[in-house]
Amino acid sequence: MYLSIATTHRPAADLGFLLHKHPDRLHETELPFGKSYVFYPEVSEDRCEAVMTLDIDPVGLVRGKGRGEGLLDQYVNDRPYAASSFLSVALTRTLRSAMSGVSRERQDLAEAAIPLEAVVTPLPARGGEAMVRALFEPLGWTVTTTPVEGPANPYVTLTLSGEARLSALLNHLYVLIPVLDNDKHYWVGDDEVAKLLAKGAGWLETHPARELIARRYLSHRPSLARDALYRLAPEAREEEAAPSEDRPPAREQTLEAPMKLNDARMAAVVAALKASGATAIADLGCGEGRLLQHLLKERWAQRLIGVDPAVGELEKAARRLKLHRPGGPDEGRITLLHGSVTYRDTRWEDVDAAVLVEVIEHLDPDRLPILEQVVFAAARPATVIVTTPNSEFNALFPNLAAGTLRHTDHRFEWTRAQFQAWAGGVAERHGYGVEYSGIGETDEALGAPTQMAIFRRAAA
User: Which among 382, 403, 394 has a CA at the least distance from the CA of 440?
Assistant: First the structure.
């Protein structure tokens, strides 16, 4: 991974005083996961550029983790190469004084806004160019992104330009690079809240995307994100305390509610499960437990498992399903698991059927092969049911602008041809047959609002 910082402030070579790194030397720093190197490819009166590169030991990342524990030792991954929390750690280890805004020789310059240009590559842009702009443009940066070539590739070369203190630029990168990557290479605990508040001081409290930043930076741990938001801004406490039913519904709910599309989806999936003969079912990405609630009414659904990466959603599901409460389901009939469809989990692999209702579109396309390995290669249930929006039908929603996705967290929405190309490839690679159908009122030209694929494993 590569970070370049340049200035045209005259004399430009003073950048070395701000970075505490002499332009005539190669600077090497030992890191827990490899080494960082800082050097200057250009030093002149008019322009000075410093570059930091990371040499990460990919074997060291998985050494001692055992076998079969997580994807790092099961799949090829981008951790040694893509800008991520590794780069943030390297910034604090390599450029700590510069991040604090201290310069023994040129403190006046450290406190001044100077012309700066930063280049980061390859940077995972999970959420697309719109996400990158939403994070950096409110901070005054001019943003340019250039896609890194490759199929289903979320990586970009990011260029930021503008006038700011060097310490501000470094702190913006420290916080927002892991936010764009939407992952961290280490366990996130209470101390990460303090780091976020320290590096975000003076800008994060007024950032329009502060809630998203807190949630992603803190690895989607709701309690930590709430703590950070409470301490950032008093109004965040009031918003968080407001009952959820008082908040405006999400765009997707507003669009689909008039046609009762969610009810239609639930009915179609339950009917398909009944026809499959499944009695043990895993709802992958179960959310608040709506499908599980429907399945509890069916006597043939004897064992139900709900899996979701969000603890808050699982808590809502437990309340909806009345788990361990009077009037709730029999003990052992339903189990809720904290987990993800991008990690193998033997706790649900023995089910007859797995269901992904409106789940795949919330994943970045480069994560779909991992989901495929987890569900179709490792677990291999007899039946897999997948539903996802039909993007062609979006033209019929009167309040949805052209090119807009139904939900702000959707990473993509597929046409019927795109969905069938993906599903057909998955079925062929893993020994399944697949059938397609639409859910909801069908338009003759554009199809139904939801599309469904039912995978059936071929007999051995």
Answer: 394
SS3 2: strand
For 252-282, the pLDDT digits (tens) are 566 666 668 889 999 999 999 999 999 999 9
What's the CA dihedral at 442, 445, 446, 450 to 10 degrees? 30
- DSSP 8-state symbol, 399: T
User: How confident is the model over 99-107, as a mean pLDDT?
Assistant: 90
Residues 41-91: tens digit of each pLDDT: 999 999 999 999 988 776 555 554 444 444 444 445 555 666 777 888 888
Per the CB < 8 A criterion, the answer to whether 36 and 54 are in contact is: yes
What angle (nearest 5°) sits at the alpha carbon of residue 400, between those of residues 451 and 363? 50
Backbone angles phi, psi at 47, to 5 degrees: -150, 140
Whole-number Cα distances in Å, 17 to 23, 89, 166, 279, 458? 9, 21, 11, 68, 67
Task: Cis check for the bond before 138: say yes or no (omega within 30 of 0).
Answer: no
Q: Which residue in this structure is represented by tokens 């930043």?
A: 213
Cβ atoms of 427 and 455 within 8 Å: the answer is yes
In this structure, are residues 262 and 270 in contact, taking their beta carbons and an 8 Å threshold? Answer: no
Distance CA 454, CA 432 (A): 10
Note the residue count of the chain: 460
Q: What is the C-alpha to C-alpha distance for residues 319 and 331, in angstroms, rounded to an integer?
A: 15
What angle (nearest 5°) sits at the alpha carbon of residue 162, between those of residues 160 and 164? 110
Strand 383-389 versus strand 450-457 pairing type: antiparallel
3-state secondary structure of 243: coil
Neighbour count for residue 22 (Cβ, 10 Å): 12
Q: Which two tokens stand for residue 266?
A: 């639930």
Amino acid at site 265:
R
CB atoms within 10 A of CB 28: 12
Collapse the DSSP code of 325 into the 3-class scheme (helix H, G, I; strand E, B; otherwise coil) and give the result: coil
Burial class (CB in 10 A: 0-12, 13-18, 19+), 4: middle
**Average pLDDT score over residue span 358-366:** 90
- Predicted pLDDT of residue 451: 97
